[in-house]
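In this supplementary section we document a worked example of the pipeline. Step one takes a protein sequence of length 385 as its only input; no multiple sequence alignment statistics are reported here. Step two produces a three-dimensional model, which step three serialises into C-alpha cells for compact storage. The input and output of this example are shown verbatim.
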Amino acid sequence: MNEDALLTHPPPAVIDLDGLHVLVGVLRDRGYCVVGPTRRDGAIVYEEIVSADELPAGWTEVQEAATYRLERREDEARFGYPVGPHSWKSWLLPARVRLWQARRDDGGRTEFVEEAPPERPFAFIGVRSCDLHAIAIQDRVFLEGAYVDRDYAARRDGAFLVAVNCGVPGGTCFCASMGTGPRAESGFDLALTELVGGEHRFVVETGSDRGAEVLADLMGDPASADDVDAALRVTHEAIALMGRHVESFDLRDLLARNIEHPRFAEAARRCLSCGNCTLVCPTCFCTSVDDVNVLEDGAAERWRRWDSCYSVDYSHIHGGSVRPSSRARYRQWLTHKFGTWIDQFGTSGCVGCGRCITWCPVGIDVTEELAAIRAADGEVDHAHN
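The serialised model returned by step three reads:
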C-alpha cells in the first residue's frame, strides 16, 4: 500500500460491487464528468459513464505485437484487463481541439475568443499506475515549464483520479522494468485493488484529502489484514506475469553511444511511418496547429491536433525535412523516448505500458530493439576489453 497515504489518511477500506456503483454516483453528484473504461467496437476504451454497469464486466484483452482482441473471463471482474488503445491523454490533451476564434465586429475591430474550458472537472476511474506516471510526465511538460498550456491546465484542474492496481498485465506490458507499476504509489485520490476470488470486493486506499472525503461517502468496511495481504499479492503476482522486460539502467547513455547502430535501419525497413506508436503513447505530446478561415463572414479559427515525429512534414523547415528518411524518424523517436527525454524532463519518456508494441501494424517491439542494441554494445565492450 501507499505508506504516505496510510500515515496521513484513513486506513484502507473494503467495498463491494454496490459500493462501486455508489462511487460513480458520488462522483457525479459532486459535479464530476466521470470517465471510465467501457467496451465499444471490439475494444476497451475510455468514455464518459453514468453507471458502474457500463464497466467491461467479465472481459479481458489479449495483446501481443500487432495483436489485440477481447476475450471473456471466467469471472465478472470489472478491471480484469491490461491498458487498451486509449490513454487518459485523449481527455487531457484531445486529439483535436479548437484553441480560439476570431471575428470582426461591425466597426472593423477583430475580437479573439479563447475556447471555453470543460464545464465540469473530470473524474477518471480505472487509471493504472503506468498511466499515473504518464499523466505526471505530461504535467511536467504542460504545467511546470516556462509556459503553461491553457487548455491542458483547464482540463487537468480539479481532476479526480481513481487508480486501479493492475493484476492482469498484458503480453506487451513492461511497467515493472520501468519502475512505473503495477502498484500505484502516488498521484491518485483513491486506489482500488479488485479481489475476485470468493466474495467480489475492492480494497480502497486513499491518496488525498478529497479521496478520504469520497471514501467516507462510500460507507465501506475497514479492510482486514487478510484483505490488505490479498491486495498486495495481486500486484506481486502481476510482476511475474509481465509479458515483456527491459533492462532500463543506462538507457540514455546506451543509445547515445550507439547512435549509428544498424538496428535503426533494420527497424526502419519494416516501419510504415504511420505514427500509431506516437498516437497510442500516453506521454507523446507532439502537436500542430491549423488555421481555418470562414470566408463568408470573415471569421477565423485555430485548431490544435495531434501530430507525430514520424510524419515527414513534422520536421519540415525552409529547404526540406530535417529527418527525410524513416530511419532518421524512427531513431529520433526511440532515442528521445528512452534517452534525451531524461535530459529535458528528468525522467524516461516511456512508462512501459506496451501500447506501441500492440498497435504497431508490423509488430516492431521496442523491448527487442533495445535488447539488440544492448547485446551488441556488450559485444563491443567485451572486444575492447
